[in-house]
Amino acid sequence: MILNVSGRTDIVAFYTKWFMKRLEEGYVDVRNPFNKHLISRIFFEDVDGFLFCTKNPMPIIPYLAKINKPIIFQITLTPYKKNIEPNVPDKKEVIEAIKQISNIIGVDNLYIRYDPILVNEEYSIDYHKRAFAKLTEILDGYVKHFIISFIDDYKNVRKNVRYLKCRELNENDYREIGVSFSSLARSHNMTVQTCFEDENLVEYGFIKGECLSREMAYNLTGKNYPRWRARKEGKCECVQMVDIGDYNSCRHFCKYCYANYDETRVNENYIKHDDNSSLLIGVVGEDDIIKRRQK
Which residues are paired to 120 by β-bridges? Predict the structure, then answer.
C-alpha cells in the first residue's frame, strides 16, 4: 500500500516527531473517521511508499535519510498572505526547504501544488499570473511538476466567506490562467496540470494527469495499484492510498481548507496529541476494535 501523509491534516508540519516515532515502533494506528471505535493497524512492513502532502516540509528534512521507503512529496505553495493562510511559514523559507528536498529525493519525486486558486479583489487573475511566473523562475532546476486546483464549496469555505470574498470564475478567467500558466511552465521545462477538476485546461496547454497516477506509483514502487473511487461526480484517476491523518487537527487554519471546519476542535485535538501514542489524536481505548490493514 501507499500511505498518504496526509490529506486530512499536515502531519509533516505539526506531527513529524510522532510520525518518526511510529516508524521506529514499526506500525501506526488510524481511527476510522466514520466509526470512531474501529482502528486500522498498519505495519510499515506492508507499506510500499509514502506520499507526503504539506505546506511546511521543514520539520521532516533532518529525518529523510532515516525513511527507507520510496517517497513522493507534494508541497503546497501559494501566494496568499496571513489573511488567508494565518499560520503557514514565510514562503521564502518554504522555497528553500523545497530546494533542499529536491536535492535529496530528486526532482522527479517532487510536485508543487499551487492549490487552490481563489480570485477576489486582492488576489486577482493578474496577481496569480505574476506569482506563478515568480515561482517558476525561482524553482527552475528544482521542480518539474506543478498541480493546480480551484477553490471548492467546502463547509469551511462557506464559513469563511467574509475573509475569502471569492468571485466565480468565467471561461475567460480559465483561459487566461491556462494559457499563462502553461506558457510559463514550458519556458522553464516544467509541466502543469489539474487533478480531478471540471476545468482541466488541457485545451490551453495543461497536461492531463493525476495527483498520483498508476504510472507514477509504479515508477515509485514497482507495483500496480487500482484507481481510487470517485468522491463526487466524475472520476478520480489517482491510485488508492491509505490516509493516516485526522480531520480537524491542522493548525495552519487556512480559510479555504476542506479538512478543518471547527477551529475549537482543532485546538482540542492538538492538546490530545501525544508523540508516544500509536494514534495521531488520542489513545487506544478499551472498547476500540483493532484490525490489521494490509492493502
Answer: none
Asked if the model's pLDDT at residue 237 lies above 90, the reply is no
- Residue 226 to residue 242: CA distance in whole angstroms: 12
Rounded Cα distance between 158 and 155, Å, is: 5
pTM beyond 0.90, yes or no? yes
CA distances 32 to 27, 49, 239, 246, 284, Å, are 16, 21, 20, 9, 12
25-45 burial code (b ≥16 CB/10 A, e <16): eeebbbbeeeeeeebbbbebe
> Are the C-beta atoms of residues 220 and 226 closer than 8 Å to each other?
no
Helices first, then strands: H and E counts in the chain: 9, 10
Instruction: Specify whether the CB–CB gap between 117 and 152 falls below 8 A.
Output: no
Above 80 in pLDDT, residue 218?
yes
CA distances from residue 171 to 168, 178, 201, 295 in whole angstroms, order as listed? 10, 10, 10, 41
Residues paired with 5 in a beta bridge: 52
